Amino acid sequence: MTRPHRRRATAIALAAAAAAVAFVPFSAEAGQQAGLADSVTDTLLAERGPAVAEQRGVAAVARHAVVEPRREVSDWSFGAATIPGDAAAHAPDASLYVAHRVAGRWQVGVLGSDTFVALTRQAPDSVVSASEKGLFAQNHAAAGPGAAARSVETGLALPVTASSNVGWGGGPHANDGSGSLYSSLDFGGSGTEVRAAAAGKVYRACVDAGSNQTALILIVHANGYTTGYYHLNQRGNFPADGTSVDLGYSLGTAGTNTVCGGSANGAHVHFTLRSGDRNNLAFESVIGKTIGGWTFHTNGSNYDGYATHGNTKVQDGGTLYNYGRYTGNGPYAATVSSSNGANVRYNTNSSTSSTMYTAPNGRALALSCKTTGSAVNNNTTWYRLTDTDYVAASLISTTATIPNC
């Protein structure tokens, strides 16, 4: 989770127990959805409670959950459900749920479970959209049996701006900061733009009812992973739950928000890796996994580790370059050499491919290989970046010999 950054000279200590107590879970007992909150809480604790208790070093977690319906119709409900942090050292454990009332009793599925996928397929499209049903099924299938043996490459970027540097003040650690399943990494400082590590659908948890803002975001990806982002200063006009976002979509800035428990000693994003390989939304170890071109390692204890990229080794507390969805070739150093900057695109057709972002003149880029596409300044050569996006070669300067893709 989030302990004092070991290499920060100053830290803002936040007591989060009060925040966790102040956040009141949804209660629908007086309305049409009577019994929903209790049923979701019971299912969530049955699915996630034992793992959370083990990580926190307690026999069992308190029977308490933040249940937040997002869409409801008749006997169906869909939304977020979170086991909040119950002390300054304990992070929230967020998930999604779908519920169907049959003969007066609620059937509940939690994201990552077979029941969740089955119920989302049955739910009305007004409760779970057709595109969400497809994504949840795809995510679950990709994270199925054998997911622990998944490739080292996650297909994820670091959760910051492409081709930029970011400090990481917390080496691999458990979500709660204790335990041996190192699923989490801490990145950035005050003002750091936090971005989606891959394309997917975005969901909020622990929304502060007073401001309609949230510090905790989940993104469900088609490749079997779900990524979590905590402590955010969320940007305004955040999209509705279930909105599709691209790699690099802005989620907010690194902050110290602990609306659902835990602590934050200095602004950062608490980034978590999760999958459904154990029939629930289980945390996935980042050890041995490659994210943003870096493979993460532990020195044997929480927050103490290092990252490697080729022959480069960076201890936690250092700075990492975001190579994006690294594909293996290179990286070959290059810079933007256009006074108007260079548009980075999804593919090599400048008339049909949307612009991911515009890299300013002089910006350093990491190239992987070259291919051909539409002509830009009478040049049909395009470079693929290590995050698998593309940029026109006529706008780039490099002394390296770039191989064909």
TrEMBL record:
<feature type="domain" description="M23ase beta-sheet core">
    <location>
        <begin position="186"/>
        <end position="277"/>
    </location>
</feature>
<feature type="signal peptide">
    <location>
        <begin position="1"/>
        <end position="30"/>
    </location>
</feature>
<protein>
    <submittedName>
        <fullName>LasA protease</fullName>
    </submittedName>
</protein>
<keyword id="KW-0732">Signal</keyword>
<dbReference type="InterPro" id="IPR016047">
    <property type="entry name" value="M23ase_b-sheet_dom"/>
</dbReference>
<dbReference type="InterPro" id="IPR006311">
    <property type="entry name" value="TAT_signal"/>
</dbReference>
<dbReference type="InterPro" id="IPR011055">
    <property type="entry name" value="Dup_hybrid_motif"/>
</dbReference>
<dbReference type="InterPro" id="IPR050570">
    <property type="entry name" value="Cell_wall_metabolism_enzyme"/>
</dbReference>
<dbReference type="GO" id="GO:0004222">
    <property type="term" value="F:metalloendopeptidase activity"/>
</dbReference>
<keyword id="KW-0645">Protease</keyword>
<dbReference type="Pfam" id="PF01551">
    <property type="entry name" value="Peptidase_M23"/>
</dbReference>
<dbReference type="GO" id="GO:0006508">
    <property type="term" value="P:proteolysis"/>
</dbReference>
<keyword id="KW-0378">Hydrolase</keyword>
